[in-house]
Design a protein that fits this description.
The chain is an alpha/beta fold. It contains 16 helices and 30 strands. Helix 1 packs across helix 2 and helix 11 crosses helix 12.
């Protein structure tokens, strides 16, 4: 790689290149099982699974899937919170030659159906519990009859609880429901012998994960991430973060999200450490788990650190074990970083990545360099970055000039799933156009300035305005609608809808009705936090809504 501006700021002792050859992604588990077989791999609500346990379990999943008719390249979805079954299914699918399609258990019926239909998933592993009145299976139940799913494998969040906790699950309002025409996960693995040899794959060509993202337009697309993309991303991330066998990772980021997948699951597994699986973020339980497990690595999004910082009892918990915390998904305020470091004595740094780069793009120095507030740092090892003209992506800009951030490296996706047009729009000559407007300072640190498109980041989860607007336009009272992200002190951004009513006299009762309407059709974080009623939407001469004017107007405050 030619000399770059960040060479002068490169952390002392950090290699500029990761030495990782092409290999199947499942090798991070199989190799670690050979080296660390009896060591703890996963901790789940007090139960420990060793590397040998997880390797064996995933091999049984692989064998079971093959017995159900899985063929090379078939897509298998996972619809589950963070559980041992998620991890075993993920690696089992890969061992069987399948492609993982991670789905959010927050999805409502229409969202899940769209993703399963587009991916062509032939099987799905799905949580089937009712938790606190929330039926995790409801969305799949609603759309299953319209999809070509050959098999549904149901898994309970209680299956791998210690016996004492499993007995108390009912008191905690967790109910495992039997579902018709399904295969139970525990029965599938019980009746399957471990697969002796994983199916052979071409690491550089064969997809491992089909990860859905909004990309650079508002339309959801599947980023095709090969085995080598994800293996390289994990190995590259390991160099600056520096995890070892003794490290304990807080796996509270959702594993269905690319950030959680790499940082909370693949990274500790590559290094022989232990991951503590938490099905959801509960601030008190997270702090309790940090102290109980002696967590040393805590990847998360700013809202998690804000919640800990502002908890009245934070100082009473044992948080000093945290050595490194890595923040992504949304801008990290300097005050939040400083306060978290005071509480833990650790080092919280901000980084940057996106689905198309397997979550690995830039990072502030963790060791041997200086973290810079307001910056996402410099490129990871084996990664190149540049700022290019918004009008001419072939023209590279200099320091302090604002343009589009482009990234290159072995972690960059192969393509968008069955979408040649969008692939050509963002991939050229080995470079990925990220869709983020940024600048690089004279020391080689990158700063995200704005979004080229109008994606909203709610606590690190991406919301695409068009998707919310589609729902708003279905409401009988709505004439026109536009959605933007507005600053939120806790979530980073929240969704705000601007609505033109067909009958303005209904304004007094319309907001609650519209929000309720959206809540029935969208995941909670996508539902408008507020609705502003306007007589008309600002538009260009050709009729395009001026979202920037909506964000800047007095109504957005």
């Amino acid at each position: 790689m030619e000399p770059r501006a960040w060479d002068k700021s490169w952390p002392v002792g950090l290699p500029k290149e990761a030495s990782v050859g092409p290999a199947p992604l499942y090798s991070i588990l199989t190799e670690s099982a050979k080296k660390f077989g009896a060591r703890p791999c996963l901790r789940y609500q007090g139960r420990t699974l060793t590397y040998s346990d997880v390797d064996d379990l995933s091999s049984r999943v692989a064998s079971g899937l093959l017995s159900l008719g899985l063929s090379d390249g078939d897509r298998v979805a996972i619809l589950s919170p963070n559980t041992p079954q998620f991890v075993a299914s993920y690696f089992g699918i890969l061992k069987a030659g399948g492609v993982v399609v991670p789905c959010s258990p927050l999805y409502k019926e229409r969202e899940l159906e769209s993703q399963l239909r587009d991916s062509g998933a032939s099987m799905i592993v799905a949580a089937n519990d009712v938790v606190g009145g929330n039926d995790l299976y409801a969305s799949l139940q609603g759309c299953r009859g319209r999809l070509e799913l050959r098999h549904v494998i149901t898994a309970s969040v209680t299956d791998y609880l210690p016996s004492a906790k499993r007995a108390l699950a009912g008191l905690a309002k967790v109910k495992n429901v039997k579902r018709a025409d399904t295969v139970e996960f525990k029965e599938l693995v019980k009746g399957s012998r471990p697969l002796e040899s994983p199916v052979r794959v071409d690491p550089e060509r064969d997809p491992a994960v089909l990860q859905y993202t909004g990309g650079t337009t508002g339309v959801s697309k599947g980023a095709v991430l090969t085995h080598y993309n994800l293996l390289a991303a994990t190995s590259i991330a390991q160099l600056p973060i520096g995890l070892g066998e003794a490290d304990v990772t807080m796996a509270v980021l959702p594993l269905f999200h690319i950030f959680g997948m790499i940082a909370s699951m693949n990274l500790p597994m590559l290094t022989g450490g232990r991951a503590v699986l938490l099905p959801r973020f509960d601030v008190r339980e997270v702090m309790r788990a940090i102290g109980r497990e002696g967590a040393t690595f805590f990847p998360g999004v700013p809202t998690m650190y804000i919640a800990i910082n502002n908890h009245p009892d934070a100082a009473k918990f044992r948080l000093k074990s945290v050595r490194v915390a890595f923040s992504g998904g949304a801008p990290l305020p300097a005050a939040v970083r400083q306060r978290f470091n005071e509480l833990t004595g650790g080092n919280l740094v901000e980084g940057y990545g996106l689905t198309e780069t397997s979550a690995v793009g830039c990072t502030n120095p963790i060791r041997g360099g200086k973290s810079r507030d307001g910056s996402v740092g410099m490129p990871f090892p084996s990664t190149d970055a540049r700022i290019v003209s918004l009008d001419d992506p072939g023209h590279e800009l200099g320091p302090e000039e604002v343009g589009e951030l482009a990234l290159s490296g072995p972690q960059v996706m192969k393509e968008y799933w069955r979408n040649e047009g969008e692939t050509r729009a963002v991939l050229s000559g080995g470079w990925l156009l990220t869709g983020d407007v940024a600048k690089m300072d004279a020391e080689g640190y990158f700063h995200i300035v704005d979004r080229k498109k109008d994606m909203v980041s709610v606590g690190g989860l991406k919301v695409y305005p068009r998707e919310v607007e589609e729902v708003l336009f279905e409401h009988p009272a709505v004439k026109e609608a536009a959605v933007v992200g507005v600053p939120d002190p806790y979530m980073g951004e929240s969704v705000k809808a601007f609505v033109v009513l067909k009958d303005p006299s209904r304004q007094a009762t319309a907001e609650a009705d519209i929000v309720s309407f959206c809540a029935e059709r969208l995941a909670k974080y996508k539902v408008p936090h507020s609705v502003a009623f306007v007589p008309e939407l600002p538009k260009t001469l050709v009729g395009k809504v001026l979202r920037r004017r909506l964000r800047e107007g007095p109504a957005t405050g």
